[in-house]
Amino acid sequence: MNNSIEKIVSDTINEIPVIDMHTHLFPDSFSQLCLHGIDELLTYHYLISEATLWADIDYQKFLMLPQKTQAEFVWEELFVKRSPISEASLGVLTVLKELDIPFSKDLNDIREYFSKINNDDYVTYIMNKANVSSFVMTNNPFDEEERKYWDQGVFFSSKNFIPALRVDPLINDWENASKTIHQDGYSISEEIDTSTIEETKQFLRFWVQKMKPVYMAASLPWDFPKKDYETLLLEECVLPVCEEYNLPMSLMLGTKRQLNPDLGIAGDGVGQTSFAYLEQLCMRLPEQKFLITVLARENQYELTVIAQKFKNVMLFGCWWFLNTPQLIEEITTMRMDQLGLHFIPQHSDCRVFEQLLYKWSHFRQTFSPILAQRYQRLENQGLTITKETIQNDVEQLFQGNFINFTNLSRSEV
Ligand code: FIX
Ligand code: ZN
Fold this sequence. Notes:
Elements (H helix, E strand, L loop, with lengths): L2 H13 L2 E3 L17 H5 L2 H7 L7 H6 L2 H14 L6 H12 L8 H10 L5 H9 L1 E5 L7 H9 L8 E2 L2 E2 L1 H5 L1 H10 L10 H18 L4 E6 L6 H18 L3 E8 L12 E2 L5 H9 L5 E5 L5 H10 L3 E3 L9 H15 L15 H26 L6 H20 L7
Parallel strand pairs: 1-2, 2-3, 4-5, 5-6, 6-8, 8-9
Antiparallel strand pairs: 6-7
Helix pairs in contact: 1-17, 1-18, 3-5, 6-17, 8-17, 12-13, 15-16, 16-17
Bound molecules: D-fructuronic acid and zinc ion.
D-fructuronic acid binds next to loops.
């Protein structure tokens, strides 16, 4: 490997800011929802499911404990009693390193360091350090807690925080979603008839106008669509409103929610998706853009081929259980082989602010050598690879593909 190419690629990847196109982060004006600090980091659901493997502890009782106690348990099991070798635990160590916090087995030492961080604009500080220029939130109008903030009008559009209207409760859980829509004053019936469809669309229009999302999104189970009404709600309510506002629809497929319900959010699993419905949807609606990611490793190849056949599909991210160096390497290499530069390689899915520091630095580290190898091959074919060539390509992957696909203007990010 040509050392200078490796170095230029890695410098470029580290220098170019990324648009994080799917997170669960909120600006600090959403006070309770803007999560940060060591206790939040340790109680990330990825770590809870790992830590609870070690002790004979009743899951439900564990989840009732105060957050500090849960964090202490995770710390003890994963960082003190044994080495923290999993991706999510290594992530905590990367965060400490990035914030210049020395590792200590005593969690209180670490808490002390966090409590001394004195930064007026911590969110911007973390974003700059992670080299993330903006991030897309997950904004759920069916979530009571989040709605309070929208009602209070605390969101001011900014180029850093981009809303996305999340609609899976509508598609997956009509029974409860219809109650919310009804309480909001829309006249709907349990049966999804023409007038209920029109009222539901009104509800969606209201939220599109309020949030000004960059896309609508739904995370759907591995066996979607299971019931006729799910496709009816997607195709007759959600997608027509996307069309009216020229919004892409983001589909995240392959969850097996509550595989172990005792573990709460940490109990979600994965299942393989069947693409038949999705393929015909992409074919039938060529003007509707779809951002798509799937959770099962076994589905990656099929999805890559779909993304190669349809202009209206933009494949994104190595999601959740796939966000490990080994799987990123495998999946990203395959995507480059089939799609060239036409995909969005990663999103962070962060829930806690400081996670930006590890999720993006780990990704950049894994991605650099994979991309450098490509340029090496091009040079072997006689092409001259300059810093500008590499910048242009990385910019496309980290920003341009998302901006162009979603019609965001460059000044908005
Ligand atoms: O549906 C989603 O957006 C998922 O990303 C989450 O439900 C999941 O809990 C998560 O945090 C994965 O990284
Ligand atoms: Zn997510």
